[in-house]
């Protein structure tokens, strides 16, 4: 899953990046509001973690611009401002959640995962799609109750497909979700899917010629 972190404090950014990467996210980092606004306008992120006190353009202005431009990705605000009135202002500007500093990285990871589940229409941390079950907290997968031994990249591919909303995902979309760029050769994604199919079974991941890949039972 691809995440935009907008944070100008280098220490906080480094700690949050470590925690989110350990949880399986691909991180893009913006250190000021102008950069954040441009990145969010060009890229379809799965979730954005947005600080309010930013140089060049404040976080609330960035968020309002995104929502005004129709950008609908989920956003969780980070801020040292903990007053209820400022939380309300953030939510009314289009934020989906609000976390006051200081915070524990584990809480942020849990909130980010919850936002992604809700945006994909899933309320629970354990997702079941057809024969496949994903435990998003433990980053574990089973097929018909049998545990799978997956590499981090293989798990992230399944996770991306599980949150695809039942539509086929192209090799370019999967590459962005896994690596943060769409420059990975389509043959590399095809090889990864083939390797994963050997572990999950041939009927779990479907191919729609000309469109991409999806999980069986996701529609």
TrEMBL record:
Q: Which residues bind DNA?
A: 124-217
List, alphabetically, the InterPro entries matched: CheY-like_superfamily, OmpR/PhoB-type_DNA-bd, Sig_transdc_resp-reg_C-effctor, Sig_transdc_resp-reg_receiver, WalR-like, WH-like_DNA-bd_sf
Q: Which domain of life is it from?
A: Bacteria
> Which positions carry 4-aspartylphosphate?
51
Q: Where is the Response regulatory domain?
A: 2-116
Supply the SMART domains for this chain. REC, Trans_reg_C
**Which N-terminal residues, if any, form the signal peptide?**
none
Residues in domain OmpR/PhoB-type? Answer: 124-217
Which Gene3D superfamilies does the protein's record reference? 3.40.50.2300, 6.10.250.690, Winged helix-like DNA-binding domain superfamily/Winged helix DNA-binding domain
Transmembrane residue ranges: none
Q: What are the record keywords, sorted?
A: DNA-binding, Phosphoprotein
User: What protein am I looking at?
Assistant: Response regulator transcription factor
């Amino acid at each position: 899953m691809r995440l935009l972190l907008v944070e100008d404090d280098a220490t906080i950014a480094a700690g949050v990046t470590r925690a989110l990467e350990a949880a399986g996210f691909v991180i893009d980092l913006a250190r000021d509001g102008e950069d954040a606004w441009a990145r969010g306008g060009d890229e379809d992120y799965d979730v954005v973690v947005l600080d309010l006190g930013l140089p060049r353009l404040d976080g609330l202005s960035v968020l309002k611009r995104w929502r005004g431009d129709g950008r609908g990705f989920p956003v969780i605000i980070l801020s040292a401002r903990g007053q209820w009135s400022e939380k309300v202002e953030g939510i009314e500007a289009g934020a989906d959640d609000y976390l006051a500093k200081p915070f524990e990285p584990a809480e942020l990871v849990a909130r980010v995962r919850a936002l992604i589940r809700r945006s994909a229409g899933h309320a629970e941390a354990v997702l079941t799609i057809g024969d496949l079950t994903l435990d998003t907290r433990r980053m574990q997968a089973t097929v018909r109750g049998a545990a799978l031994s997956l590499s981090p990249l293989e798990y992230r591919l399944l996770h991306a497909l599980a949150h695809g909303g039942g539509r086929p995902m192209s090799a370019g979309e999967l590459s962005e979700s896994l690596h943060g760029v769409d420059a990975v050769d389509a043959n590399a994604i095809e090889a990864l899917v083939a390797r994963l199919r050997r572990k999950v079974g041939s009927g779990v991941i479907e191919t729609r010629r000309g469109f991409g890949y999806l999980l069986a039972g996701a529609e």
